[in-house]
Amino acid sequence: MASLALRRAEAGPIAATTRDRAILRGFLERDRLFAAYAICDLDEREFARTRWAVAQSGSEVVGLAVEYDGPSPQPLFVMGSDAGIAAILRDVLRPRIAFIATLPDDLAAVQRHYRLDPGPQMVRMATDRERFRPVDDPGLERLSPSDAPELNRLYRLGFGSWLPGQSIADGVYYGLRIRGRIVSAAGTHIVSRDARLAVVGNVMTAPEFRGRGFAKAVTAAVTAELLGFCDDVVLNVRADNPPALNAYRRIGYFEHVRYEERLARRAGSFLGELAAALRRRLVSGDA
Questions:
Q1: Which residue in 78, 138, 184, 270 could disulfide with 214, CB within 3.0 to 4.6 Å?
Q2: Same domain, 241 and 176
Q3: Quick one: which of 265, 276, 258 has its CA closest to 120?
Q4: How far is C-alpha 75 from the chain's CA centre?
Q5: Rounded Cα gap, residues 30 and 63, in angstroms
Q6: What is the per-residue pLDDT across 7-53, written as a single tens digit (0 to 9) for each?
Q7: Chain segment 132-141, per-residue pLDDT in tens
Q8: For residue 179, what pLDDT band results from cuts at 50, 70 and 90?
Q9: Residue 80 falls inside a structural domain
Q10: Measured between alpha carbons, how far is residue 1 from residues 9, 234, 276, 282, 287 in Å?
Q11: Which pTM does this prediction carry?
């Protein structure tokens, strides 16, 4: 037993899956704004489609990751120390392909196991009741599930995806119409009333109506409603999109952190896979 304990200590942090939401929430709250999606995913409605892992050094949690069910590639969020992240990606969460979100300082740990496509950094912005500056525009309207077909016609101009009516019912969506047509809209990616936290997204303006401040106005309307029951609201912007960054700053969003969100492909060989399997057996005590 002493020999096994020594080998585990030499191997660094020990990674394992967990469904203990208290442990997960406690670690994620260390950086609530960066971990906003993951914190919201602890809600019962989202939790069932997630798989979580933590890395521990002794009794201390030093790394966390969460992956999602669904067609590949799915998001994979990682947070923690270099050794903790590397242990999780080495031994527990090992998708062949994923969209990995991580802080720049943690890229080295990710790249031990994944080849990353190039891409611009992302900016996590946030606001709260004290910082937020509303926009008064009487032309804005709260959208409902019945607006889904028209909203999707707008989104397909840039997103190429389909938004179900239930997502509109579960979230907060506002739009602006010109001559009866929705030309700009914003909504939510995820909302947690329990965590008092929300992520704004799905912001789109039809190309011929851009440059008029419509995106800022609809985003402000969504944010204002969310701050009625949330302490913090966040959104994501590409770092190479200064107009959007400036527009969100004008309504009270501030830059919290820059991070990487990259398509990642597993880098490994048969021998590497075999070594990882042996390590998992050692950690579980089967060796």
A1: 184
A2: yes
A3: 258
A4: 8
A5: 11
A6: 444 569 999 999 999 999 999 999 999 999 999 999 999 999 999 99
A7: 999 987 789 9
A8: very high
A9: yes
A10: 12, 48, 21, 12, 11
A11: 0.87
Q: d(Cα 204, Cα 160) in Å, to the nearest integer?
A: 12
Q: Are 182 and 276 members of one domain?
A: no
Spatial distance between the Cα atoms of 82 and 88, rounded to a whole number of angstroms:
10
Measured distance CA(68)–CA(66) in Å, rounded? 7
pLDDT greater than 80 at residue 269: no
Give Cα 121 to chain centroid, integer Å.
14
Q: Which are the contacts of 193, defined by CB distance < 8 A and separation ≥ 6?
A: 229, 230
Residue 228 maps to a domain: yes
Q: Please check whether residues 98 and 172 belong to one and the same domain.
A: no
Task: Please indicate, yes or no, if residue 126 is contained in any of the structural domains.
Answer: no
223 in a structural domain? yes
Looking at the structure, do residues 16 and 115 belong to the same domain, yes or no?
Answer: yes
104 and 84 within one domain: yes
Task: Judge if 142 and 242 occupy the same domain.
Answer: yes
User: For the chain, what is the domain count?
Assistant: 2
Report the candidate in 214, 243, 220, 244 with the shortest Cα–Cα distance to residue 233: 220
Backbone angles phi, psi at 286, to 5 degrees: -80, -20
Domain that holds residue 57: 2-120+261-284
Residue type at 22 in one-letter notation: A
Considering only 30-39, 67-76, 80-89, which range has the smallest mean pLDDT? 67-76
d(CA 81, CA 142): 42
CATH number of 99's domain: 3.40.630
Q: Are 256 and 125 in contact (CB under 8 A)?
A: yes
